[in-house]
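Researcher: Predict the fold of Acid beta-fructofuranosidase.
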Amino acid sequence: MVSPNSSTIFLFLLSLLLLINNGVQAFHKVYPHLQSVSVLSIGAQHRTGYHFQPPKNWINDPNGPMYYNGIYHFFYQYNPKGSVWGNIVWAHSVSKDLINWEAVEHAIYPSKPFDKYGCWSGSATVVPGKGPIILYTGVKDEAQNQVQCYAVPEDPKDPYLRKWVKPDNLNPILVPDKEVNGSAFRDPTTAWWSKDGHWRILVGSRRKERGVAYLYRSKDFKTWVRAKHPLHSKGDTGMWECPDFYPVPLKNNLGLDSVVDGKQVKFVLKNSLDLTRYDYYTIGSYDKDKYVPDNTSEDGWGGLRYDYGNFYASKSFFDPSKKRRVIWGWANESDTTDDDVLKGWAGIQAIPRTVWLDPNGRQLLQWPVEELDSLRGKEVNMKSQKLEKGVNVEVKGITAAQADVEVKFSFSSLDKAEPYDPKWVHAQDACDHKGSKEQGGVGPFGLLTLATEKLEEFTPVFFRIFKDQNKHVILMCSDARSSSLKSKLYKPAFAGFVDLDLTTNKKISLRSLIDHSVVESFGEGGKTNILSRVYPQLAVASQAHLFVFNNGTEPITVENLKAWNMKSANIK
Ligand code: DQQ
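Model: C-alpha cells for Acid beta-fructofuranosidase follow.
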C-alpha cells in the first residue's frame, strides 16, 4: 500500500476537516443563538435504548470514570442549556453495574475565576487511604486559556459523592509555563504513582502542529513540576486531546491499576486527534519517563484506532472489583446542528468496553462489558446457514431496532479473493469503492442492520477479503451510505483492517449492538471495532429488520448466529 509522507496527510486532513465540517460538528465553537432554545420536537425514534444518554441536551467526552466504595461513577461533558456544545459542566451519574444509571447533581461547574468559561475534560485518581481526586481543565477567559484544577468530594462518606469542592488554596493547581501553549493545554490523565515517591500525570497539548503529551510530577498531588521532556510527542498530528496512558499485562487479559514496574507488561498511549476527531493508540514500553512505541505499532495517522467509526475523547479506568480495564468513548451525532436543536439532544456514550492486549502483542482487544448481557431478552438462532452469492436471509423473531447479534462466518477457500488496489491508502478508501452492493470474490458478507424489508434503507456491517502481494487483506466496513433516505446527514463508509491470518482457519466473527441510531460493531472478538450513527426514516421500531448476506462468489456459511432482543437500560 502506498504511504504518503506525513505532511501531505496532514494537509489533506486539514482540507478534509473543512469539507466535512457540516457533517461532524465543529468543536469548541460557541453557538450563542442556539443556547436555551426551546425544544420543538424530539427525535424519539432515534433515542437509544441501552446506550448512555441523558434525557436532553448536548453531551461530549466521558470524564473521570472510577469505581469507589462499590459504586461506579461516570462524569461527562454536558451543556445544561441546549443541544449544542457550550456552557460545559461535569454531569454525574452513578451505577452498580455500568449499564443502569442514576443521575445526581452536576459535580463540577463554572464557579471560580479559573474555570469561569468552562469545566473541560479530566480524570479521577483514587488515592489509597485518601479517596478520589479529580483533575480537570478550567477555561479562564474568552480566549479559552486553560489551566488544570483540583476537586475533591465534600463528604467522602457519601456513597454517591454528590458534592465536589475546589479548594481555593490549591487552585488552579497547574498553569502553563511560558514554553507551553496556554490555549492548547488540557485534559489531565489519571495520576500514577511510582516507587521514586512521585505522582505523575500527562496533559495534552501541541507545539505548532506536533502533538504533545506533557509529563508532570508531584510528591504531594498539589505542587506539580513539568518534566524536561514530554512523555511522548509526534510531528504533524496536531493537538492531542484527552491523552490516556496505562499498562496491560503481556500474559493475561486482566486490567492493571496505574503504572506498574516489571517486564510482564506493555504500555498503551492513546491520544484523541482534534483535527480528525479520532482516537489512535500505540503499544510500547515505558522507562525513565520516556515512552517508546514498539516497531509493530505505527505512530501517527496510519496508527491503530480504538474504533474506526464515531468514537472520540475516550477515557479508561481500572475496575478493581473485576480486575479489568474499561474504556468509555463519546459518539457524536452525525446529523446537522439544526437537527440536534429540533431533537433537543445530541451525543451518546459507546457501551463501556473491557480492553486488554491481543495475545499477538501488536494490538488491543475490546469487548462490551459482560454486564451488558443482563439486558439480553428473547434469543433466536441460526445454524449452518449457507449463503450463496446475492443471498440475504432474514433473522426473524427479534426486535431488530434494539438488539445484540453475535455471528460466526466460515468459507472454504481464499482463491476468489480480489486484488487489493494500492491506491486505497486507508481502509475507508477501499470501502468507498467496494461497498456491500459491489459483488466480490470472498465477500462482502456480514449483516444488514436497521434495514427495511425491501432494503430502501440499511446499514451493512461486513467483511471483504483481498489479495495483496503475498498476503490477504481483511477489510471490515460499517457503511452508512444507504442508512437513511434523509439527505444532509454525514454518511461515511467507515472501515478498518482486521489483523487475522485466514489461511488455515477460514472463520471470522462479528458482534453488532444495534440501538435505533447506533450500530456498534466488534470484528473478530474486538480486534477491529466500528461505531456508526445512523438515522433511518423507515427502518425504525418494528419496521426495522436484520439480515445476514453474502454478495461474493465464494459461498459463505453462517456457522452460528445468536441474536437477542435487548431490554432498555434504566438510565434515570
Ligand atoms: N472536549 C473538551 C476538551 C477536550 C475536548 C471540551 C475533546 O477538554 O479537549 O468539551 O472532545
